[in-house]
Design brief:
The structure is a single chain. Helices cover 43% and strands 23% of the residues. The chain is α+β, with helices and mostly antiparallel strands. Among the domains are: 61 residues; 103 residues, 2-Layer Sandwich (Beta-Lactamase); 118 residues, 2-Layer Sandwich (Beta-Lactamase), CATH 3.30.450.20; 158 residues, Alpha-Beta Plaits, CATH 3.30.70. The strands form 5 sheets. Strands 19-18-24-23-22-20-21 form a 7-stranded antiparallel β-sheet. It is flat.
Length: 782
């Protein structure tokens, strides 16, 4: 089986057999489907034709009998008196029926043709066909019945009602027909469906078999529908064809048709073993073909492969000759694919020679590059003995200037004696595969015994079963000195930052905390250990104090760098701290480029003073309500807000009546108490969103947002009543105070606060002129 020729021969043989089997299987399946379709179609044609024929025979006799009965319009007496004469006129029906009979209304046979002894006078009152004809006044066809005294005869009775001239039931005209008479089932026995197929007819109502090739089953109960479910569906009215198990358990093709004029089912059954007999013959022929193909496949495949592999043997000899240099190229004829393979082999051998030359050139280049490199590069064997080292390695290690003097020595001989015991365990771990890499900062002996600080790295080189180690030595003396200087400078910078009173936070390019001084730790509620290396946004959030909009350090670095910015700082413990942030970004080259320096100054006291000054500038100190300046500012904001101006807004001016008498009788203390009580009344009656202000003295002004004039008038009436009932607690005997109130609705065309206040003032003056202590909402036509 290792021979390609044998494998190809077997493959070709199997391929031929598989193809023959596949095509034979497809042919068999297709032929089987065609045979099934043809046999089923033939069975459907036979059953449909037979069903239509019997149905037509029954319908013809049914119509003849109906027409004969409809021609009679006699009452019951006439039928009994003239029965023989009446029936004599219907002798022509004898050609369609076995016999014809005339029944009176009581179900007695009063005449028959041909006459049978003992039949006249017989009562059929209890027979179903008579009762149904009498009750429904419609023609009936009876269920098949056995003839008394003769078990070999089976009849069906056709009946049609006879009505008198008033449409009342007078009698029945009937005709009998033998099932196996030539007029009905007589020719069914000549119908053949193959050798074992058969036709059967069953009644649906009485479930009787009235025709079957097996005479013993005629007029017997139909098969059990549980054993033949397809037959059960047909008895329930289903028409169709299918493949199922027959009543005897044998697979068969089945076709059923329900007749229209009589309650019968015609069925056709064709066993599958006979239906598929033609395809079985074809299958045996195909098996002979497959067997013959199997016997011939291997010899034919072997011969074909031998012929096809002839050029391949010639190619083998050419390749062997080229491998030993006897040939410069491979040429073969006889196969396009082998010609391409020969050309490919020629190209491969040429490429191999070119690569060998290129590798030699690269090896020379590598050596020249290593010799000129400032880094020390050397290679050791598995035991650490030097097999190669460049000039930089010799110079850094203080080794002999000739490579040959060090080859074969251990590389640890170049390490300063004080550090060999520390480095050797790391080296042994690398040798035995216990460590993934090797990195050490150490001292080499150096030239003239002066130690040199170097960075030493090792990498494993596994080439098949050969283990090597590549070492790289880098002089880091200058870098170490620079690092020491930088650390000293860092220490000085940290000392300066620690002494600054403001909070200072240093973050890297990702806004992660690199340094946080003690004031910043107190301000943010942090300690340096938990904040180090974590994003500043995890501990604090910054927002503009006016809008509350959050802002990040990255945004401030782009827009407000080196500019003091007032912000609100929300710390991790949910303390809101007003601060002034000055943000700087390091622009120097190096790893610190992009670092951010955040200087946070506590701005709480200054903002508290500003808030107090702003409040005092817009509020009345006695009542804590807005003053004139605050009221004008609120009204100006309303006029500038288009969305608010689209709603209903009302401005109210209120002036106290008799307030001077209060001051005169009770003193300024009583007057101040009245003003404070009125402010409380207004705050109670109005919403928190409305504007309440004291313009000065005893004059108040209000703005009711999103409020109609009628609603505002009702509110101010309630305010007026509260003021009229007001008495100072300190001096109840002081003169009673009332209020004159005027209100106006803000109009869409209003642009100046002065115009609105003037309209409200005019209504307030009108309230005073009309007797005080009232609310005026209209003035003239306004």
């Amino acid at each position: 089986m290792k021979s390609l020729r044998t494998r190809l021969a077997l493959f070709c043989s199997l391929l031929i057999v598989v193809v023959v089997l596949f095509t034979s299987s497809l042919s068999y399946l297709e032929g089987k489907a065609r045979v099934r379709s043809m046999q089923l179609q033939h069975l459907e044609d036979v059953v449909t034709r037979l069903s239509d024929d019997i149905d037509d025979r029954v319908r013809t006799r049914h119509v003849l009998l109906e027409q004969a009965a409809a021609s009679l319009q006699l009452d019951g007496n006439n039928i009994r008196k003239h029965a023989p004469e009446i029936l004599h006129g219907f002798r022509y029906l004898k050609g369609s029926f076995s016999s014809i009979m005339l029944f009176d209304a009581e179900g007695n046979v009063v005449a028959d043709y041909p006459e049978l002894p003992g039949r006249r006078g017989t009562s059929v009152l209890d027979r179903a066909y008579f009762a149904q004809t009498r009750d429904t006044l419609r023609s009936q066809i009876s269920e098949p019945v056995r003839v008394a005294g003769d078990i070999k005869r089976s009849l069906i009775i056709f009946t049609s009602p006879i009505l008198d001239e008033h449409g009342q039931f007078a009698g029945v005209l009937g005709g009998s027909l033998e099932l196996f008479a030539p007029e009905l089932f007589g020719d069914l026995r000549s119908i053949a469906i193959g050798g074992t197929g058969y036709i059967n007819i069953n009644t649906r109502a009485s479930r009787l078999t009235i025709f079957h090739p097996d005479r013993s089953r005629i007029m017997q109960a139909s098969p059990d529908t549980s054993r033949d479910p397809v037959f059960g569906r047909a008895l329930q009215g289903w028409d169709g064809s299918t493949e199922s198990l027959a009543a005897n358990g044998e697979p068969a093709l089945m076709v059923y048709r329900n007749m229209k004029n009589v309650n019968w089912v015609v069925g056709g059954v064709f066993p599958l073993r006979e239906a598929y007999e033609p395809i079985s013959v074809m299958a045996r022929n195909h098996m002979l073909i497959v067997l013959l193909a199997t016997l011939l496949a291997f010899p034919v495949g072997w011969w074909g492969v031998h012929r096809l592999l002839g050029p391949l043997q010639a190619l083998r000899g050419k390749v062997q000759a080229m491998a030993f240099g006897a040939e410069k190229s491979v040429k073969i004829q006889g196969s396009h694919e082998l010609e391409m393979l020969a050309q490919t082999l020629t190209d491969v051998f040429g490429e191999r020679e070119r690569i060998s030359e290129e590798l030699a050139a690269r090896e020379a280049f590598f050596r020249a590059l290593n010799e000129s490199s400032p880094l020390g590069i050397f290679v050791t064997d598995a035991d650490g003995l030097l097999v190669y080292c460049n000039r930089a390695t010799l110079a850094l290690g203080g080794l002999a200037q000739r490579e040959e003097d060090w080859l074969g020595r251990h590389w640890l001989d170049a390490v300063h004696p004080a550090q060999r015991d520390t480095i050797e365990p790391e080296w042994q771990a690398l040798r035995h595969g216990d460590a993934a890499g090797f990195y050490q900062l150490c001292h080499l002996t150096g030239v003239r015994g002066v130690p040199i600080r170097v960075e030493l790295r090792f990498t494993r080189l596994q080439q098949g079963s050969i283990l090597r180690f590549l070492g790289v030595v880098h002089d880091v003396s200058d870098r170490e000195e620079a690092l020491l200087s930088m650390n000293a400078e860092r220490e000085r910078g940290m000392a300066i930052l620690t002494s600054i009173a403001d909070a200072v936070v240093l973050t890297n390019q990702l806004d992660e905390v690199s340094y946080i001084n003690p004031p910043a730790q107190r301000l943010l509620g942090l300690n340096a250990e938990e904040a180090q290396g974590r994003s500043l946004a995890l501990f604090v959030s910054l927002a503009y104090p006016d809008s509350g909009q959050a802002v990040s350090l990255a945004t401030l670095a782009e827009t407000r760098m080196a500019v003091p910015v007032e912000l609100d700082l929300l710390s991790r413990d949910m303390r809101l701290q007003p601060v002034v942030l000055t943000l700087s970004v390091v622009q120097a080259a190096g790893s610190m480029h992009g670092y951010k320096i955040c200087v946070l100054h506590d701005d709480s006291e200054r903002r508290r003073r500003e808030r107090k000054h702003r409040w005092e500038a817009t509020h009345d100190a006695l009542t804590n309500l807005l003053n004139r300046r605050g009221f004008l500012g609120a009204l100006t904001v309303l006029l500038d807000n288009g969305e608010a101006m689209a709603q209903n807004n009302v401005v109210v001016m209120m002036d106290l009546d008799h307030f001077k008498q209060v001051n005169d009788s009770g003193g300024h203390q009583a007057g101040d108490q009245i003003l404070q009580d009125i402010a409380a009344i207004l705050q109670k009656r109005l919403r928190n969103t409305d504007v309440i202000s004291r313009l000065g003295g005893d004059e108040f002004a209000l703005i009711l947002y999103n409020c109609t004039r009628d609603t505002a008038q009702g509110i101010m009436e309630a305010v007026r009543g509260d003021i009229a009932r007001l008495r100072p607690q300190s001096n109840p005997d002081v003169c009673r105070v009332t209020a004159s109130i005027g209100l106006t609705q803000v109009q869409p065309q209003d642009t100046r606060p002065h115009d609105i206040i003037q309209r409200a003032d005019l209504r307030c003056y009108q309230a005073k002129e009309q007797g005080r202590n009232r609310v005026v909402a209209t003035l003239g036509s306004q």
